[in-house]
Amino acid sequence: MCHPSWGRALTEARHRSDLVRLRRVRDRIDREHARPLDVLALARGVSVPAGRLSRQFRLAYGESPYAYLMRRRVERAKALLAHGGLGVSEVCSAVGCSSVRTFSARFTELVGVPPDAYRHRATGTSAVPPPRAAEGETRPVRLPTEPARTGLRSAATPGPSPNPTGSPGRPRS
After folding, report:
1. Model pLDDT, residue 162
2. For 84-103, b where at least 16 C-beta lie within 10 A, e where not — what string?
3. Where are the bilayer-spanning segments (predicted)?
4. How far apart are CA 171 and CA 173, in angstroms?
5. Which of 4, 120, 133, 152 is the most core-located residue (most Cβ within 10 A)?
6. How far apart are CA 113 and CA 107, in angstroms?
7. What is the pTM assigned to this prediction?
8. In angstroms, rounded to a whole number, what is the distance separating the alpha carbons of residues 103 and 99?
């Protein structure tokens, strides 16, 4: 029969090995944040199911592996934007994001301002607004136009009757 302390020792050893795995995952994210990484690839790297890795990572570090990866990417993007040499799309691809829209949304969520505004603040330049924004208009205005002539009539658009006499039946020739 096993000694009771062996069970505790085994549990502690498993816990330590789990922490070592999690540290390896975190270190890989820190090293390779500019590469396309996902939780499945990270889990495969340490031979753990993806769901288990996510749960353990969240318990150990307080955020999911994806949230940690995006936070690292945004930190790197802040440094690149502060130097002012790159635009938002170049910074987005430099930090490993494939979508500028997703990157901008996440950057704004974490930093509090959009990446372009952050770049202008950090470099001390002011963004020149487009002419419409300077006039107070933020959206283009559609001017009323005549309805398109498709040959079809709707009840809302008055037009000439197909029968010029106005009477039912065959039109005169």
Report:
1. 56
2. eeeebeebbeebbbeebeeb
3. none
4. 6
5. 120
6. 7
7. 0.62
8. 6
Residue 77 contacts residue 91 (beta carbons within 8 Å): yes
From 49, 45, 48, 105, select the one nearest 73 (Cα to Cα). Answer: 105
- pLDDT value of residue 137: 44
For residue 22, give both structure tokens.
């999690």
Q: Which residues of 13-49 are buried (b: 16+ CB within 10 A; e: fewer)?
A: eeeeebeebbeebbebbeeebeeebebeebbeeeebe
8 A C-beta contact, residue 68 and residue 26: yes
Cβ contact 96:37 at 8 Å: yes
Class of domain 14-123: mainly alpha
At 80 the pLDDT is 92
Handedness of CA 115, 118, 123, 126 (dihedral sign): positive
Higher model confidence: residue 15 or residue 166?
15
Amino acid at 25: V
Is 84 in a helix, a strand, or coil?
coil
Tens-place pLDDT, residues 106-129? 999 999 999 999 988 877 765 544
Lowest mean pLDDT among 8-12, 30-34, 39-43, 154-158: 154-158
